[in-house]
Amino acid sequence: MDWEKEREMFNQMADYYDRYRPDYPDETIRQVLETAKLRDGAKLLEIGAGSGKATAQFTTHRFTIICIEPGADLVKKGMKKFQAQNISFVNTRFEDYDTPLKHFDAVISAQAFHWLPKPAAYAKCAQTLKDGAYLALFWNIELIDDTPLDGEMHEIMLAYRAFTASMPQKEYAKRTEEIASEIAESGYFEPPQVFYTHWEKTYSAESYFGYISTGNVFVQNSEDVKRSCYEALERLDKKYDGIKRRFVCELYMARKK
Predict the structure, then answer these.
(1) Does the residue 204 lie in any domain?
(2) Contact at 8 Å (CB) between 91 and 14?
(3) How far, CA to CA in Å, does 31 sit from each of 38, 96, 180, 196?
(4) Could you list the residue range(s) of the whole structural domain that residue 40 is in?
(5) Which of 130-139, 162-171, 182-191 is predicted with the least confidence, judged by mean pLDDT?
(6) Rounded to two decimals, what is the model's pTM?
(7) Based on the structure, what is the number of domains in the chain?
């Protein structure tokens, strides 16, 4: 994979990322805090923080958070957003970050850990975590069902390379099994506890277009192609009185061995 190209793609969509990437369910954040037993004063490392979408949901506590993000524009947004808090951003890839040993009370990563090379990423996380501390990985996954709306949406995704973090509902169980096995088989963590929070949202053509514009593949399309995609979404929005989407937020809580 061309990591430099991927970094630049995410950097280009910084404005869309901050505005249109969905937040994570409050239940997911609560589960991270409770399972990892995080208290005020805890030190967190966040991998692939973007502009701080997930970060913001941890700010109700007095945590010290170091956010690792390779996109310079995303880092600028995050630094401006959290300038009055004990949150810092480091503009680098996690692989290149000089992690302190046994320092953090938790390592978190929202919608980003799949970009990292394995099993090296698990080893580095374990090295920087305190003994018995937790790695918390979570993703919002858009579920695709066998409905007319979902069928038409899938055709749009294929035609315009408008790929989101999505997959057919019937294939979803396999994904979670593979991730849980990968974590356990790394040898650095106990088998993870897996938590699921289901949620729904009805998008307009504009807001869904903003959402898919946070995708590193779609952003490479020409302006004409993007305009055509937007028009297709407008027709879908009008036909179904809104673009109704279903999501599951999956959370993997893995305790360091």
Answers:
(1) no
(2) no
(3) 10, 30, 17, 10
(4) 3-141+168-198+248-255
(5) 162-171
(6) 0.92
(7) 1
